[in-house]
């Protein structure tokens, strides 16, 4: 039985291989070249994916643990449908331990209403705040690091030296960043609201087949 990381690694490698093959076909058609498979370019791109996927997988788990997603509203709805029992309300009140008589009739509404109303407001605010944090991290830190690693790895696999790779990072970082910003925000919104954490890397790869084509064309397939 494969681990979640193993399944993610295989699926992402397949999706990246598909995007690279598609990029090769586009490049050959565009330049009037005979259709053929550049196996070396394919291996380089899949190798890059195999290296980067575990890093992104761990990153997504860390971010989700640090900033959990939206809480379920099932408990809040149950609370709205059926108010807390009198025993649970009274036992939480200090007056229960100091007097054998029941609390005045107006005590229960005052104690019940704030607690009931506070749960959805706090949970909703916390979920939205965490979503915004994860969204911004994906658009900034995660995006920048992934682009630098891509330029570094793909050119290292092609045999470039460190000096050349640094020049390419300085030259290509912002054009790739701008290109990424045209589609990644929509992917991030879906990824951090409806996609389970262990499926996010695969989801990103599936949504990013076109992005993979762009990166493959950058890699001069």
TrEMBL record:
Keyword DNA repair recorded: no
Membrane spanning stretches: 39-57, 135-157, 201-220
Compartment list: Membrane
Matching Pfam families: Mpv17_PMP22 (PF04117)
GO cellular component term of the entry, any: peroxisomal membrane
Biased composition (Low complexity): 82-100
Region listing for Disordered, in residue ranges: 74-122
UniProt family annotation: Belongs to the peroxisomal membrane protein PXMP2/4 family.
Protein name: Putative peroxisomal membrane protein 2, pxmp2
Species this chain originates from: Byssochlamys spectabilis (Paecilomyces variotii)
